[in-house]
Structure formats: C-alpha cells, structure tokens
Amino acid sequence: MSKKVGIIGGGQLGKMLVSEAAKMGIYTIVLDPDEDSSAVSLANEKIVACFDDRAALLELARRTDVLTCEFEHISTEVLKYLEDEGFVVYPPAEKLEIIQDKYNQKMELKKHGIPVGDFMKVSGIEDIKAAAKIFDYPIMLKTSKGAYDGKGNSIILCEEHIEKAFMELGGNAASIYVEKFIPFTKEISVLYCGSTNGEVVVYPVAENIHKGGILYETAVPATISDTQRKNAIEIAKRVYSLFGSVGMLCVEMFVTKSGNLLVNEVAPRPHNSGHYTIEGCTTSQFENHIRAVVGLPLGKTDLIIPTVMRNILGEDGFKGIPVIVGAYEALSIEGLKLHNYGKKETKPKRKMGHMTITASTLDIAREKADRACKVIKIISK
Ligand code: ATP
Ligand code: MG
Fold first, then answer.
1. Which residue's alpha carbon is at the smallest distance from atom 7 of ligand 1?
2. What number does the ligand 1 atom closest to the CA of 119 have?
3. Are 293 and 66 within 8 A, CB to CB?
4. Cβ of 193: how many Cβ atoms within 10 Å?
C-alpha cells in the first residue's frame, strides 16, 4: 500500500480519485495549473504547472511511483519522454495519442471492425458540403482534439449553417471532421477496468441523457434488451482490448432506431457516466482505478440498487464565486447524495457538482431527482 500516485489534472475526476486513494491510505500528488483546483484540497501534495510542462511532469514522476490522468488532453510527447526515462504512465502515451484525436480514434475503431457511424475527414467548407451530400443533413462537425462536454461539436442542419459552424470550431486552424448524424433512441456507456496483473472487470451498462452535448443524467440499470446488454458489453470488451491498459476505460455508444449499437467515443479514464458507481456499486470506478494503477486486486462492480445521477451545472446568467442554493431541501430527500466539487468559479453550464439518488426503482429515483433539480442551483455571489 506504500505506492504514491501522481494524478495529472485536478478537476472533479481528480478529486474523486484522490478521495478514494485517501480512504485506502494511498498518497497522492496532483498536478494542475490552478493552485486551487478541486482535487488539491484532498491531495497530499500539489504541483502547480501546465500539463505540457516537461520539468513539472518529470518532478511529479520522480516523486511518485505511478502516473495517471483524469483527462486525455495531455502532451503525449512529454508522456513519451517520461516513459523513456523509465516512469510508468497509465494510460500509456502510445494509446493516449490515438484516443485523444477523435478522428484517429474512430479510424482505429473502424479498422478493427468495431461498429461506428459514418465519418470523414474534412479540411474546409467545400469538403463539408461534399460530406453533407454523402451523409445528408443534419451532419455533426467535430474538432478532432481538445473536445469535452460538447464543446468542439456543432450540428449543421443545412448548407447555410456550414460557414458559421466551421468558423466557430476554429476555421482553417482547427483539425476537424464530419460525422453522420445518428438519430439514436438511447445513449449508453460501458466502463471497463483492467489491473496490472491482467484482471479485468466490467460495470453494469449505464443509460445516458445529454442536453446540449453535456451529460444530464445517467440511470442504471439501462432499460435495454438482454441482447443489447450482451452486445454492449461485447463491443466494449473489443474496444478495451484495443485501447485498454491499466485503469478505467469508458465506451460511449448510441442505440440506433433498428436497435443496433454504434460506438460514439472512448475515454481512457474514469468517466462522468460512471459517477453513479460511488453510491450504486460495490466498488466505485475511482476506487478501482486507484486499485488498478497501484497493482491491488480490483473490487466487485455489481449494482447494489437502481441509481440515477444528475449533473449540477452553473446556472445561466451567473459567473463568479459560486453559491449553492437548495442544498438543504435536496438533502432532505431520502437516498440523495450531493457532490459539490468546490470549484472556485462558476460559469453558465460549467460542471459544478452532481447528485446521486438511489431508490428501490428507477422511476422513484428519477422522481426524487426531478424534485432535487428544481431546488438545487449554482448561482454566484
Ligand atoms: P464528452 O463530454 O463525452 O467528452 P464530447 O465533447 O467529446 O463529450 P461527443 O461525445 O462527441 O462530445 O458528443 C456529445 C454528445 O453529442 C453525444 O453524447 C451525443 O448526445 C451527441 N452526438 C455526438 N455525436 C453525434 C452524432 N454523430 N449523432 C448524433 N448525436 C451526436
Ligand atoms: Mg462524449
């Protein structure tokens, strides 16, 4: 248990990793450019530096036994350098490099016969028009790198929208591609976790609802057929064997109108759609990620009780020091747990916290979540 973990990124995922590590007495150092990032309040030590700061990452590696990250947009050049110096990084730079470019990630999935929607590389307005001729409107324009919470995506409904969407995503300076719009009936995700000794565990399939490209709700168990559940786990297993290493990996999928599954994207780390595992499962995704990277046995992943997770976003029209209102009323709802990330600044639609509701049925959990969502707000001073 004496291994020290270096965590690159001090956001909410980093905080929840640190929290689980602390429970097991595992020492953590968090690296983040923000000296007040969410995770530092719980970490043993912090390093304040940018994610591509080679010297700072080297220091993090020297002072810990293993490095891991809470997000994928990290300089793989620096990570490769650390690996060459003999340091251990999960996920390894080679895998992260493919995953962090969404176009390359999709190409790799397709190459290995994993079902994905149609997509094509574009490099300008004429290319986008040509893609729309093939796919039909609407189409999704996406930046290949640095995207999160739907930022970096733009739906194009007709030819008149192309220029605006193209410019919004960075124009000629950005690396972009087009995806065929999938009129899905549901979105689901599957979380896998692998350990250093080859042990692999999978979590129950989660059902996700996004609003404006941002995850709004995760509900588990997913209301899909047994065949779809089996297929989802099978597809995610194939993705895991392609991209998985040590630690968590999340596979987001669409359920199409005909009931088939298409992989949307992959995240090689704990994922927002796995927050429900803290209260809903025997072992959370964060605990298993930490156990995995330090070489401990993995914990059971079974669902204990129907669980609904809702994100709490910064209220529109408020920016600055956050104030949470309605926490008292929300916490008086039986089965509700509140997670406040402790971010120092709120912005419209910024992820500020989440709530998890466990109940005997999903309907009851949802009804309680609806009540809580009506009262909980993040405004600013
Ligand atoms: P994350 O927050 O998961 O990192 P992201 O910014 O990388 O998200 P995506 O997962 O690409 O974005 O897209 C966000 C959401 O937008 C999806 O969950 C889905 O609801 C919708 N979406 C993305 N691509 C498509 C598509 N091709 N067809 C239909 N909807 C899509
Ligand atoms: Mg996504």
1. 148
2. 27
3. yes
4. 28
Q: What is the pLDDT of residue 197?
A: 87
In the CATH hierarchy, which fold is given to the domain comprising 4-90? Rossmann fold (3.40.50)
Instruction: State in Å: Cα 41 to ligand 1 middle.
Output: 31
What CATH class has 184-380? Answer: alpha beta
The token duo for 286 is 């964060």
pLDDT tens column, 316-342: 999 999 999 999 999 999 999 999 999
pLDDT tens digits along 225-238: 999 999 999 999 99
Check whether 369 has a pLDDT greater than 60: yes
> Which atom of ligand 1 is closest in space to residue 140's alpha carbon?
27
CATH topology of domain 118-180: Dna Ligase; domain 1 (3.30.1490)
d(CA 322, CA 309): 21
262 lines ligand 1 (CB under 6 A): no
Domain range summary for the chain, segments of one domain joined by +: 4-90, 118-180, 184-380
CA of 121 to the centre of ligand 1 (A): 17
Q: Is a pLDDT exceeding 70 seen at residue 374?
A: yes
Question: Is the minimum distance from the CB of 145 to ligand 1 under 6 angstroms?
Answer: no
Rounded CA-CA distance 347/44 in Å is 28
Same fold, 4-90 and 184-380: no
**What is the predicted pLDDT for the residue at 69?**
97
Q: How far apart are CA 370 and CA 96, in angstroms?
A: 37
Query: Whole-prediction pTM value?
Result: 0.97
